[in-house]
Design goal:
InterPro entries: Pyridox_Oxase-rel, Split_barrel_FMN-bd. This is Pyridoxamine 5'-phosphate oxidase family protein. Residues 1-29 are annotated as: Disordered. Pfam families: Pyridox_ox_2. By secondary structure, the protein is α+β, with helices and mostly antiparallel strands. The protein has one domain (19-223): Roll (Pnp Oxidase, Chain A). It contains 5 helices and 11 strands; from the N terminus they run E-H-E-E-E-E-H-E-E-E-H-H-E-E-E-H. The protein has helices spanning 34-42, 80-85, 134-145, 158-162, 220-223, and strands at 30-31, 46-53, 56-63, 65-67, 70-76, 90-102, 110-120, 123-124, 164-170, 174-179, 197-200. Strand 6 and strand 7 (110-120) form a beta hairpin. The longest helix is centred in the middle third of the chain and has 12 residues, at 134-145. It is globular. The two termini are 34 Å apart. Mean pLDDT is 90; it is low at 1-13.
Length: 227
């Protein structure tokens, strides 16, 4: 499968912020535009965090959200990942697959996608941070998941927050790579009698399922879930 054929990126590339964020393979798909990076993060539910400890290299999926120019994650104070991230460099990745690109030759098949890679070091968000506190960050996470939910539920208590670590990483060293559009077949393959095109993929929202003990009418954000 070819994932390096030329296709116009969703935004024009700009200068890479560091050598390790310089995209060399299919560089025409690269972007360092903050708006592209923000959109990729904001559309994500989960990121993957790669880090190293005394047992080797790990890549852990975890929920993520964005506030300004930082990506946030959270976890239990006892989490191996939480303990290690503030101590060293890591790499965060996000990928959305938007379609399978069917070409007329095997090696020109591709995918339409949006992806981001972020390098750096996480920092701990304090209980009363000058910029964003732990509580404000977690409330923003809830709003990222389901806007309007935070106003209805019981907020976290002191014990729950004390057992939780919130971390953030700056978006200063990052690169995006995207592909969209039809297959790019070689001229000599255009006569091959094979279907060519794109098989789109998208995230589908299912019908909300109320808890057996719930007697509360569905609020607006539940009724709008499938819109």
């Amino acid at each position: 499968m070819n994932t390096s054929s030329s296709a116009a990126p969703s935004a024009p590339p700009s200068a890479a912020p560091s050598p390790r964020t310089q995209v060399k393979r299919a560089a025409n798909r690269a972007s360092h535009d903050p708006a592209v990076l923000h959109a990729i993060i904001d559309a994500a539910w989960v990121c993957h965090v790669a880090f190293r400890d005394e047992h080797g290299v790990h890549c852990i999926p975890t929920a993520c959200w964005r506030i300004g120019e930082h990506l946030y994650i959270h976890g239990s104070n006892g989490s191996r990942m939480v303990k290690r991230l503030a101590d060293g460099e890591c790499c965060v990745t996000i990928t959305h697959v938007d379609g399978l690109v069917m070409a007329r030759s095997a090696f020109n098949h591709s995918m339409n996608y949006r992806s981001a890679v972020i390098y750096g070091r996480f920092e701990t968000v304090g209980e009363y941070g000058n910029e964003v506190s732990k509580r404000a960050a977690m409330e923003a996470f809830m709003e990222h998941l389901v806007p309007g939910r935070q106003e209805e539920i019981r907020p976290g208590n002191d014990k729950e927050y004390a057992a939780t670590t919130v971390l953030r990483i700056a978006l200063a060293e990052a690169a995006c790579k995207t592909r969209s559009g039809p297959p790019e077949d070689d001229e000599e393959d255009m006569a091959v009698a094979a279907w060519a095109g794109v098989l789109p993929l998208r995230e589908a929202r299912g019908t909300p399922v109320p808890d057996a003990g719930c007697r509360i009418p569905a609020p607006d954000y539940v009724r709008r879930w499938q819109e």
